[in-house]
TrEMBL record:
The lineage of its organism: Bacteria, Bacillati, Actinomycetota, Actinomycetes, Kitasatosporales. Zn(2+) 1 binds at residues 35, 37, 140, 259. Binds 2 divalent metal cations per subunit. It comes from Streptomyces albireticuli. Transmembrane segments: none annotated. The modification N6-carboxylysine is found at residue 140. GO terms for molecular function: hydrolase activity; zinc ion binding. The keyword Ribonucleoprotein does not apply. Zn(2+) 2 binds at residues 140, 173, 202. This is Phosphotriesterase.
């Protein structure tokens, strides 16, 4: 058996992270890119699909050489997540990979497809998480700009139901970094998902540090991302946000990822790519906020955020 390919069982009663090759103890992730994409397609990105397994493998090897141990892919259902390829890449590169179920915003899908699955969505999520040949380890959903439409509320209700059936963490796309209060109201209020099972993506795409502090006080995780060509305007304010959160006592709520969404943003495509997190961002983070903080953000926090008591 490949050393990564653990059976779907963890320590008795303890939390585990569900990777594409099986469940592993939380400490088995190592250094983690907490939000990225190896495969992705959308009608909103014509001609920019991430669909090349060879390029994905090269990116993972570069990340591994930089000291990386795990990548969490947030690509949900219907957007070309290619779980079989993820399993093959995990075996070939030695990087642990966590896949997603869930749905993105409605604009990424054929309306007829959404209509066909309307009454069975939670069941599809549960199947992906528990019985699929290559299993997902988190549920990805998406909010809108400063609010939630009917589609988002439907998907989040299904995600909450699937969380209660499985224990899986729920990862959320915040549109331009906004809307966290509405998301938390639906998931944690109406859906009764514990806040520490929720991971809010893209908080740094809004410059509102007060909103970030409020989200951290809720108990949710904040997954900052975007060191790529598409999102570079967020880079200059990243450290201010992280310092404010750390000073307020929320260093244990912070995650970091690359969120590579185009081939040009990959290291193998000329962009910073996944290795940038460790070759450039991590040393700068350690110099600014301390080595203990950097280790917490890249190792300790992901181990807790993506682990679950699966059932």
């Amino acid at each position: 058996m490949n050393p990564q390919e653990a059976p779907l069982a963890g320590p008795a009663g303890g939390p585990v992270v569900r990777t594409v090759l099986g469940d592993v103890p939380p400490g088995g992730l190592g250094v983690c890119d907490a939000h990225d994409h190896l495969f992705l397609r959308s009608p909103l990105l014509p001609g920019q699909e991430l669909a090349d397994p060879v390029a994905a493998g090269a990116e993972l090897r570069a990340f591994r050489e930089a000291g990386g141990g795990a990548v969490v892919q947030w690509t949900p259902r219907g957007m070309g997540r290619r779980r079989g390829e993820l399993a093959a890449l995990a075996r070939a590169t030695g990087v642990r990979l966590v896949a997603a179920t869930g749905l993105h915003q409605a604009v990424h899908y054929d309306p007829e497809l959404l209509g066909r699955i309307r009454t069975e969505l939670a069941g599809l999520f549960v199947e992906d998480l528990t019985t699929a040949p290559v299993r997902a380890g988190l549920i990805k959903v998406a909010g809108g700009f400063h609010g939630l439409d009917a589609h988002a509320r439907w998907v989040m209700a299904a995600a909450a139901e699937a969380h209660h059936a499985t224990g899986a963490p729920v990862a959320v796309h915040l549109e331009l970094g906004t809307g966290a209060p509405a998301v938390l109201d639906v998931l944690c209020g109406e859906g009764e998902v514990p806040p520490d099972r929720v991971i809010l993506g893209h908080p740094g795409r809004s410059a509102d540090v007060r909103a970030q502090l409020s989200a951290a006080r809720s108990g949710a995780y904040l997954a900052f991302d975007g060191p790529s060509r598409a999102h570079h305007p967020t880079d200059w304010r990243l450290f201010d946000s992280l310092a404010a959160l750390a000073e307020a006592g929320h260093a244990d709520r912070i995650l970091l990822g690359g969120d590579t969404t185009t081939a040009a943003a990959r290291a193998v495509g000329g962009g910073p790519g996944m290795p940038y997190l460790l070759s450039t961002l991590r040393p700068a983070l350690a110099a600014e906020l301390g080595e203990e903080f950097a280790a917490r953000v890249f190792v300790g926090n992901p181990a807790r955020a993506f682990a679950a008591h699966w059932h």
